[in-house]
Amino acid sequence: MAEVATTTLDSRIPDGPMAEKWDRRKFEMKLVNPANKRKYNIIVVGTGLAGGSAAASLAELGYNVKSFCLQDTPRRAHSIAAQGGINAAKNYQNDSDSVHRLFYDTVKGGDFRSREANVYRLAQISNSIIDQCAAQGVPFAREYGGTLANRSFGGAQVSRTFYARGQTGQQLLLGAYSGLMRQVKAGKIELHAREEMLDLIVIDGVARGIITRNLTTGKYETHVGDAVVLCTGGYGNVFYLSTNAKNCNVTATWRCHKRGAYFANPCFTQIHPTCIPASGDYQSKLTLMSESLRNDGRVWVPKAAGDKRTPKDIPDEERDYYLERRYPAFGNLVPRDVASRAAKERCDAGFGVGDTGLAVYLDFRDAIARDGEDLIRAKYGNLFHMYEKITAENPYKTPMRIFPAVHYTMGGLWVDYNLQSTVPGLFVAGEANFSDHGANRLGASALMQGLADGYFVIPYTVGDHLGSTDLPTVTEDHPACKEALTSAMGQAEKIMAVNGNRSVDSFHRELGQIMWSNCGMDRNRQGLQEAIEKITALRNEFWQNVKVLGVGESFNQNLEHAGRVADFLEFGELLVRDALEREESCGGHFREEHQSEDNEAKRDDDDFCHVAAWEFQGVGKNPTLHKESLGFEEVPLATRSYK
Amino acid sequence: MSNESLDLTLKIWRQPSPDQPGEFREYALKNISTHMSFLEMLDVLNEQLISEGEEPVAFDHDCREGICGTCGVMINGQAHGPDHETTTCQLHMRRFHTGQTIVIEPWRASAFPTIKDLVVDRSAFDRIIGAGGYISTNAGSAPDANAVLIPKIEADEAMSSAACIGCGACVAACKNASAMLFTSAKVSHLALLPQGQPERQQRALGMVAQMDAEGFGNCTNTNECEAACPAAISVDNIARLNREYLKATATAK
User: Fold this and answer.
1) d(CA A248, CA B63)
2) In this structure, what CATH number is given to the domain that contains residue B36?
3) Is residue A621 part of a domain?
4) Which of A629, B125, B145, B197 could lock onto A134 through a cystine, CB 3.0 to 4.6 A?
5) Residue A447 domain flag
């Protein structure tokens, strides 16, 4: 058992009725007068939806912003790959949607492990996001009359998802990026592309800057400021194979964790049901096929195990449309965790299709017969094109083969209602924080959260910190800056000095295999305990046998990757410990010991209706567990059912 | 689906840093599965190089699903290789045959200086966007999204222009290293929408001026850019940019 702290975490949720909390907090918070804003310097790390929108909005208010990204330009952050859409409670379809319904669906979808007040605020803000993006020129899909179009997504019975073909993330990100570049041109944002954050500078308990490595030159830099906003995404690549971009990593959040920021619910990882299956051991990443496809595609496997006929030769009565069978109310549009587990269940039972038996069909035959190929092409053309590129199969003629893959991480750095971490002055937004999605995120909600945090929460709450905290001037010569710089440089030097025999990638792949087999779609005590031993052994081997060529002070992609894998090797252990400690099944966290007779997740609200926030105590040492208990006043605790 | 394996010869541009000269180096690669992506083939090469003690080939890549625009190399003289509307990461080895020699080079343009091996600096594109590729609207000031109606046909056309991924293949494919396709895609996207009207003139003038200042060449309507573009950006955008620029010049205050 983990050591549990006796002090309680204060989430600083405002008083008053749910619908008034955010207004109340906005009024309570300190303001910085317009003329004084230019005296403050804010560091924003990451330029995805959260980071791009936060940097632009803070600069629009008049603050001086330094924006950092490790890509060659801010427009490439991984938000760009989001396909399906963004939710908002506009009720443009007149189908009885409301702020309360979006809030309700998100709390239920998260399996009652998110913080109600945060989710309510998210639903409230959702409508302003659509307005803001339309005003920026985001080319959302429209009806012939010129109004905005919507589609349905998993976990909801209303159509509230706004989209731009199958490239919604791209268009929203380019919107935020255009706002960011406008402020760069105006001189309010200093842009640092190809620069990776390697440490957090904490002075007198307050976050005051970061250490970065310029990836082009290999040189280290110290940047001081009055607040740090971390928007560095999720940690899905701890599994090696995921739908994340290759450069997504846990380094920035992990190094903040080592400086005192608690890490919350790391075991809440989302396995997305509709991804293209792996084809060989050279596989470098997995590609998602948008959840929106489940609007028109029907998921099935043959009724007979091991049926090797081509799909078109299998008549309807010999097909098992298992989602429609098990969940008649939501059918193919059940939430992601439910759909993923159901696919795995069928494959484990021997009904999987394709060469490996690790796939199920996603079939558009009926939709094409009903609506015609042209309409299906208009809705999903780019996704079908992508599928054909990768598999050399035409999904208009033969069903797609799909299998679940690691996609999104609900866990992240713990933040209070103001999105401030346990290190004052360090704010965390977007996928990097833990707050809004509980144990399972609903489709089209990540884009909503990233932009809600960046456009409409961070600009106010960072101001409150600046207005209410004494922030003496600090310079790069401060001992804390020098200590952080030495520590960041030391890690790279240590890696270069190992000079072993094994490539960085081979360590990363092995870690991924451990995580996927022992802490993937289903987890059990013995497997998790085994994983901790294996990760520890692999980490020890890494520091004795990793091989990185070239020199440190240069453009060196291998060294970049090594630093990230070193952090994954520490972080992976925490993820497994969290999964071990959480003796219940909820959302994306499925413990085999805790399931109902018909294989559904069994929550334990008496013992686990809390956020598990972990405090770092040293590498290889047991972290301390802090619990934030969760109250459900508006959406009463209930067993989640999509039947 | 057949799963064959290929034996290949790679001729790759190696250049340690911007100020050192580069050269082609030849590598033999065996047993490459036809199901591999082009970048996975380079991953296999790099693992082989590391085990032999040679520094791996530097190349830019990230999402590996064709949307981020990070990857992009010249493959046998073609930007992103032989497939139509396909980024380097989406190109698969089934497109090649055993015994083939594949020549791999970085984008070549003076506005895209080489950083290392196959990696170039494309920050000029950011500065072109900064010169007007946006609508000036601060967070919080937007009207209801349905208050401004946009005919579906125009919204769809704007979307087609906005689909540019900023990879730079258009520049690499152009004999003049022109950035007209990139610049015109953003000018078109915003000129087609009612929200883009107030800044329409300054946008066309500012972005073209920045494009010229960065050292990109002029457009001579060869249309190689369109042929190389993985995002299907049409040269019609260039025609529109020319009209936008002419109108803006004639009516500029």
Assistant:
1) 9
2) 3.10.20.30
3) yes
4) B145
5) no
- Kindly state the average pLDDT of the residues B121-150: 98
Asked if B203 and B151 sit in the same domain, the reply is yes
Whether residue A616 sits in one domain with residue A504: yes
**Of A35-49, A219-233, A614-628, A629-643, the least confident:** A629-643
B129, B140, B150 ranked by CB distance to A181: nearest = B129
Scored b (16 or more CB within 10 A) or e, A172-189 reads: bbbbbbbbbbbbbbeebb
pLDDT tens figures, B28-79: 999 999 999 999 999 999 999 999 999 999 999 999 999 999 999 999 999 9
H or E segment to which residue A275 belongs: strand A269-275
A402 and A491, same domain (yes or no)? no
> Would residue A391 count as lying in a domain?
yes
Q: Which residues from chain A sit within 8 angstroms of residue B61, using beta carbons?
A: 246
| pLDDT above 50 for A471 | yes
H or E element in which residue B140 lies: none
Determine which of A91, A133, A185 to mutate to test the interface with B (most B C-beta atoms within 10 Å).
A185
Q: Please answer yes or no on whether A282 and B148 come within 8 Å at the CB atom.
A: no
pTM of the complete model: 0.97
pLDDT category at A477 given cuts 50, 70, 90 is: very high
Outline where A470-547 has alpha helix (H): 479-498, 504-519, 525-545
A504 shares its domain with A370: no
Predicted confidence (pLDDT) at residue B2 exceeds the cutoff of 60: no
Same domain for A534 and A402? no
B76 touches chain A (CB under 8 A): no
Instruction: In whole angstroms, give the CA distance from residue A71 to residue B171.
Output: 20
Cβ distance A170 to B65 less than 8 Å, yes or no, reads no
Q: How confident is the model at residue B82 (pLDDT cuts 50, 70, 90)?
A: very high
Which residues form the domain of B131? Answer: 123-251
Q: Which of A60, A134, A167 is opposite residue B67, by nearest beta carbon?
A: A167
Domain region containing A499: 486-629
Write the CATH number for A520.
Answer: 1.20.58.100
Q: Cβ of B92 and A56 within 8 Å?
A: no
Q: Which of B85, B115, B145 is the last residue of a domain?
A: B115
* One domain, residues B244 and B133: yes
Distance (Å, rounded) from C-alpha A536 to C-alpha A604? 30
Q: Does B58 touch chain A (CB under 8 A)?
A: yes
Which residue of A178, A217, A356, A508 is the best one to mutate when testing the B interface, meaning the one whose CB has the most B CBs within 10 A?
A: A178
Q: Does B4 touch chain A (CB under 8 A)?
A: no
Long-range contacts from A614-619, C-beta under 8 angstroms, 24+ separation: A614/A257, A614/A262, A614/A263, A614/A264, A614/A266, A614/A574, A614/A577, A614/A578, A615/A5, A615/A260, A615/A262, A615/A422, A616/A257, A616/A258, A616/A260, A616/A263, A619/A570
The crossing angle, in degrees rounded to 10, of helices B180-191 and B236-251 is 70
Q: Which of B51, B133, B142 sits opposite A135 (nearest CB)?
A: B142
Residue B3 has pLDDT above 70, yes or no: no
The reply to whether A107 falls in a domain is no
pLDDT at A506: 98
Domain end residue (candidates: B66, B93, B115): B115
Residue A535 has pLDDT above 60, yes or no: yes
Do B94 and B154 belong to one domain? no
Using CA atoms, how far residue B105 sits from A112, A268, A574, B13, B57, in Å, is: 52, 42, 42, 5, 11
**A386: chain B residues, CB-CB within 8 Å:** 65-66, 90
Give yes or no: residues A403 and A492 share one domain: no
- Contact flag B86-A167 (C-beta cutoff 8 Å): no
Indicate if ipTM > 0.85.
yes
* Chain B contact set for A56 (CB, 8 A): 139
Count of domains observed in chain B: 2
- Give contacts of B 174-203 with A, CB under 8 A: 189-190, 193, 195-196
